[in-house]
Design brief:
By secondary structure, this protein is of the alpha+beta class. The protein has three domains: 189 residues, Heat Shock Protein 90 (2-Layer Sandwich), CATH 3.30.565.10; 126 residues, Ribosomal Protein S5, domain 2; 264 residues, formyl-coa transferase, domain 3 (2-Layer Sandwich), CATH 3.30.1540. Helices cover 35% and strands 21% of the residues. The chain has an eight-stranded mixed beta sheet, with helices on one face. Strands 9-10-13-11-12 form a five-stranded mixed beta sheet, sandwiched between helices. Strands 16-17-18-22 form a four-stranded antiparallel beta sheet. The radius of gyration is 31 Å and the shape is globular.
Length: 643
């Protein structure tokens, strides 16, 4: 005990120990070593980067590039701490446009491995030089070594001199899985670089360079699967000095884990809370419970308005105007997902088919494994070569729908008891039906086709130009009703301008922190826009005087605390809207067409037309799909036609 309480003198750490401490922050496993070495190769202006691994990277990691190389005199400095060529002043740090800048990676890696660096700045291969450092030997050894223009970094026996760290490494398969994920992030950040990954002398990935759209899609498809592209929307939006582009998955193409989420800020992959919050908000209302969206998105902005020096591994960033970035990301993705209609394919040749772990149709993976046809949900814009239904059949459907049910929207919005049968339509002469047909090209089938039957009072069967569509009528009408109710409450935008509020008979007192009081005062207009009136009653007390009528029975105290936390962290809060939308969703669920209610053909067609006009009609309020399609060629395959 005396030894523990004995006063110790302050001293300078041994350089080797200091490097090993730094390595604890930067070098976690072979994947983190690869990240640092590959980012250096990217910063060197390389056009081709080759990576070789052995034993998942624990035995060997070799990264070879054709970049600018390192001069002979600079090679020893490259292995020193805080030595870099990427920044020289505070101005450079405030506008970093390179991936690395701290100058600690090579020094940290060399302190826990046997590192060899060979580089050449000349076009003559005989001009190369080698520098070697091994763990305890901090003085690098220099020697001539032939090498083409560029650099090669070889890391052997990671953690050979720190056995306590080495025993925390997992199996070779697990470590290589982490390495491959890091590789995937790197190659998605730079399409203009050719990449090669080998493991145990076997080529795992070989990707050609190309930054034109077709080449980028090929790379994304090779890394994430063609199904990702077939079920993703391409976005490219620019506003207020920000640009967001990339691919965002449809709500029906979700995952059980957040393992296909890639977000890049100025070419740097990040995992940021503000970004994650904005994406979650954009997918609210359309994502099935417990599922995660998929996306590959790129945010471009001025380097001076984002700070990348906030995390040892540089996985997090800090935006100067976080609210602006959050609102831009949310509004861009929210609108992109809302604008999807059944007649809009996600890509020119997209044929979205669900994977086994995606929310689409049950049994899809089993059918695929057995070579059987699979149902799919997709855009269905008609092409010139697609088969069209007969003109007289289209006229029959349209005439019956328009002549018999001119007020179909009001009829569908009025729920009927399940035991009540709808009144039979009054029959009309065929000539009268044809005369009611509008002057239009009747041979052009709408995206969701025309209803032909109702199955067990639950599903609508519709014939399209491509094949057969099955619609869950309750789920579809639930979304239609929900969107209309949101429009009535929220108006055209996200502001709750028309929301009715009510004053509290006795103001509610909330105990908060001083920072939350400051946030409430600063965001007073935001609260008023959401129908909440707050007053400051003390340094740590707020009074709630007015709330929206729809929140009459809600836990207002928890909502206010949550809003204050969101506004402080993200600059935006959607808790009031979310709670109101939950109430509207419940109301729309009870007010929609119920199962086992029989609909006439015109009523079913009215529902299909409403789906084509409604935002987010591909999913119900709970994120379940509302319709699915089986093309004719899949039906032919099912019945062995043409075989």
């Amino acid at each position: 005990m005396a030894a523990m309480t004995e006063s110790r003198r302050i001293h300078i750490l041994d350089p080797r120990l200091a490097n090993q401490i730094a390595a604890g922050e930067v070098v976690e496993r072979p994947a983190s070593v690869l990240k640092e070495l590959a980012e250096n190769a990217i910063d060197a202006g390389s056009q081709r980067i080759e990576i070789d691994l052995e034993a998942g990277g624990a035995r060997l990691i070799r990264v070879r590039d054709d970049g600018r190389g390192i001069a002979e005199d600079d090679l020893p400095l490259a292995l020193s701490r805080h030595a870099t060529s990427k920044i020289a002043s505070l101005d450079d740090l405030e506008g970093v446009d390179s991936l690395g800048f701290r100058g600690e990676a090579l020094a940290s890696i060399s302190s826990v491995s046997r590192l060899e660096l060979v580089s050449n700045t000349q076009d003559e291969p005989s001009e190369g030089w080698r520098v070697v450092a091994e763990g305890r030997q901090m003085e690098p050894r220099m020697s001539p070594a032939p090498h083409p223009r560029g650099s090669s970094v070889v890391v052997r026996d990671l953690f050979f001199n720190t056995p306590a760290r080495r025993k925390f490494l997992r199996t070779e398969k697990t470590e290589f899985g982490h390495v491959e994920e890091t590789f995937r992030r790197l190659v998605l950040s730079r399409y203009d670089i050719a990449w090669v990954l080998r493991h145990n002398q076997k080529v795992v990935h070989q990707l050609r360079a190309g930054d034109e759209p077709a080449a980028m899609e090929r790379r994304v498809g090779a890394l994430l699967g063609r199904k990702f592209l077939e079920n993703a929307l391409h976005v490219d939006i620019e506003a207020t000095g920000l640009r967001l582009w990339g691919w965002v998955g449809l709500p029906t193409h979700s995952r059980a884990q957040a393992d296909q989420q890639y977000f890049f800020v100025n070419g740097r992959v990040v995992r940021d809370r503000l970004v994650a919050h904005a994406v979650r908000q954009a997918y609210r209302d359309v994502l099935f419970h417990g599922r995660h969206p998929v996306f590959v998105l790129y945010l471009e902005l001025d380097p001076h308005v984002v700070d990348v020096n906030v995390h040892p591994t540089k996985h997090e960033v800090r935006f100067r105007d976080g609210r602006l970035v959050h609102d831009f990301l949310f509004s861009s993705l929210h609108r992109a997902l809302a604008d999807v209609r059944p007649n809009e394919p996600t890509s020119p040749d997209a044929v979205p088919v669900s994977e086994g772990d995606e929310v689409s149709t049950p049994g899809a993976s089993t059918a695929a494994a057995n070579g059987q046809p699979r149902w799919q949900q997709q855009g269905m814009a008609l092409g010139a070569d697609q088969e069209r239904p007969a003109a007289h059949r289209v006229r029959e459907f349209m005439a019956g729908y328009q002549a018999l049910h001119p007020e179909h929207e009001e009829q569908l919005l009025t729920p009927q008891p399940q035991h009540t049968e709808p009144e039979a339509p009054v029959a009309r002469e065929p000539d009268a039906q044809v005369r009611a047909m509008p002057e239009a090209d009747a041979t052009q089938a709408p995206p969701l086709g025309y209803a032909v039957a109702q199955l067990h009072g639950v599903y609508i069967l519709s014939q399209t130009a491509r094949g057969l569509v099955v619609v869950d009528m309750h789920a579809a009408h639930e979304r239609i009703t929900y969107e209309r109710m949101k429009q009535q409450v929220h108006g055209d935008g996200q502001a709750l301008g028309r929301l009715q509020t009510q004053p509290l008979l006795v103001p509610m007192s909330l105990a908060v922190s001083t920072r939350e009081v400051e946030t409430a005062e600063r965001e007073r207009e935001t609260f008023e826009r959401l129908g909440v009136e707050l007053d400051v009653a003390g340094p740590e007390t707020l009074l709630v005087r007015r709330v929206p009528v729809l929140l009459d029975n809600a836990d207002v105290e928890s909502l206010i605390h949550g809003m204050l936390g969101d506004l402080e962290r993200f600059g935006r809060s959607d808790r009031v809207e979310a709670h109101i939308n939950e109430l509207l969703a419940s109301m729309s669920c009870h007010g929609s067409v119920r199962a086992n209610r029989r609909l006439t053909v015109p009523e079913m067609n009215a529902l299909l037309r409403d789906m084509e006009r409604t935002e987010r009609s591909g999913q119900c309020n709970h994120g379940r799909p509302t319709w699915t399609e089986m093309p004719m060629h899949e039906l032919d395959k099912l019945f062995l036609r043409g075989q």
